Amino acid sequence: MRTGLATDLAQLVADPARVLSAPAIVEKLSRDFYWYSPILRRQLEGKAGEVVVQPVDQAELIAVMRYGFAHEVPVTARGAGTGNYGQCIPLEGGIVLDLALMDKLEQITADGVAVCQPGLRLATLEMEARKIGWELRMYPSTLAKASVGGFLGGGSGGIGSVAHGALRDFDTVRAFEVITMEDEPRVVLHEGKAVHEILHAWGTNGVLSRIWFALTPAVEWTQFTAAFDTYEQAFRFTQSIAVDAGWNKRLATVFEWPIPSYFSPIKEVVREGKSLALLMIATAQTDALRKEAESAGGEVTFCGKYDGPRTHPLLSDYTWNHTTLWAMKADPALTYLQCGFSPTECERQFHLLRERYGDEILFHIEFMKNGEGVVIPGAIPVVRFTTEERLNGMIAYCRSIDVFVANPHVNTVEDGGRFRADNIQLRAKYKYDPKGLLNPGKMASFQRETAAK
Questions:
Q1: Is the pTM of this model over 0.90?
Q2: Quick one: 193 and 246 in the same domain?
């Protein structure tokens, strides 16, 4: 550790106990779920910060940023650590800025906008919002642990995206305040299109301190599963529900067999050898959905009310990237990709991938609305890892047949597939972090020498 670092930081916060330097704790709070990727597991193992600071308000956060700039100490912001790209793993040591204690929900406005601090848990927000007739537009499968700020910094979409798109679409993120890494840190309000400077930039160009997050009117939801003899049947049924605006849905997911076999806690909803469709549908439409599934050749295996994050079983715990987690528990050789298939050519793309890779790739589809309002087959396929070359070849082949891939096996914002072509995130890095001290090494196109000129 840099000499005197913990002692200096303890003078910047009201309670010195919120400066943590025990190696085991620092290591734990320097981690996320990077080990989903066998490549990142090798690259990032052993990386950690030197000390953790847990601010409770904006003033303490600014004090830490001012210190980091003055002493050229890297600062890596941390939400709840539920990301999968190693977003919050410090590559150059320094300070881990743990925002978990900045978790206040200030208010939910009359028009359904949550005003909160970045450390607020999404599950808490979902529960509080539903009490007064609102709910999250979308949330990751890590709902129970994930924070609002972490979701904005490193997330993309999730449960609800079939209706409301990705996190960056449809003004879901109304505004936020960002602390800059400068000689005298500024609090910069971002509204409207300006939020795209910071969204999904992994805390490389500013630290969120206050957020305005749009909600949607709450719906009484029912969780629903149906088993089909073939993947094609399951996919076509689910696609028909996902793209039809007449169905009020929050989730539309398809799992190719044997993926459902990995879901051991809910084995009662699984049928041996069959693909599985999983949906959240408005309770008022449950009977109609049952008839639709049965007429499509499906067997309805579960139908139960969603009562919020504490629902049991919470079937969203098996969707999005939680699917990958269950697969890896069953077989450690499995990993994943993040893909987007064509809404019109997807079945041809499925066929080409099956023809080339067989059961090296297993289809897991998450339907979601894109920024133009078109519902597309997003995907988090489960893939068998053998070598990095084989995995990169699979990614290259996907792209050659027009399957979009956001590569989850890299540790930079650009290569992860969410970097904006207009370079707005990079330009913000030069404006707000001229020394390159915020989460250094994660924005590959930033050049410290250029910033210093």
A1: yes
A2: no
Percentages helix, strand, coil for the chain, rounded to the nearest 5?
35, 25, 40
Q: Are residues 212 and 226 in the same domain?
A: no
Query: Are 271 and 360 in the same domain?
Result: yes
Q: Are 270 and 202 members of one domain?
A: no
Does a structural domain hold residue 52?
no
Mean pLDDT of the chain: 96
The tokens of 402 are what?
A: 């027009």
Query: Considering its fold, how many domains does the chain have in total?
Result: 2
Whether the ω angle into residue 313 lies within 30 degrees of 0, i.e. cis, is yes
Provide the 3-class DSSP secondary structure of residue 122: helix
The 3-state DSSP class for residue 249 equals strand
Residues 401 and 291 both lie in one domain: yes
Q: Which two tokens stand for residue 294?
A: 């049965």
Three-state secondary structure call for residue 176: strand
CA atoms of 304 and 225, how far apart (whole Å): 9
Phi, psi (deg, nearest 5) at residue 180: -90, 160
- The answer to whether position 444 is within a domain reads no
Instruction: Check residue 52 and report its DSSP letter.
Output: E
Q: CA-CA distance, 343 to 281, in Å (whole number)?
A: 21
pLDDT, tens digit (0-9, with 9 covering 90-100), for 283-292: 999 999 999 9
In a domain, 396, yes or no: yes
Cis peptide before 217 (omega within 30 of 0): no
Copy the structure tokens of residue 43: 């690259």
Three-state DSSP state, 408: coil
End of a domain among 198, 217, 236?
Answer: 217
Q: Write the DSSP assignment of 253-302 as a string of letters.
A: EEE-TTGGGG-GGGGGG--TT-EEEEEEEEGGGHHHHHHHHHHTT-EEEE
pLDDT band at 416 (very low <50, low <70, confident <90, very high): confident
Q: What is the token pair recorded at 418? A: 């969410």
Percentage of residues of the chain with pLDDT beyond 90: 95
What CATH number did the domain enclosing 384 receive? 3.40.462.10
User: How far from chain centre, in Å, is Cα 143?
Assistant: 10
Do 191 and 274 reside in the same domain of the chain?
Answer: no
Average pLDDT (76-82) is 96
Map residue 48 onto helix, strand or coil. Answer: coil
**Across-strand partners of 96?**
52, 76
Whole-number pLDDT of residue 332: 97
Task: Name 221's bridge partners.
Answer: 282
* Domain enclosing residue 251, as ranges: 221-405
Q: Are residues 183 and 151 in the same domain?
A: yes
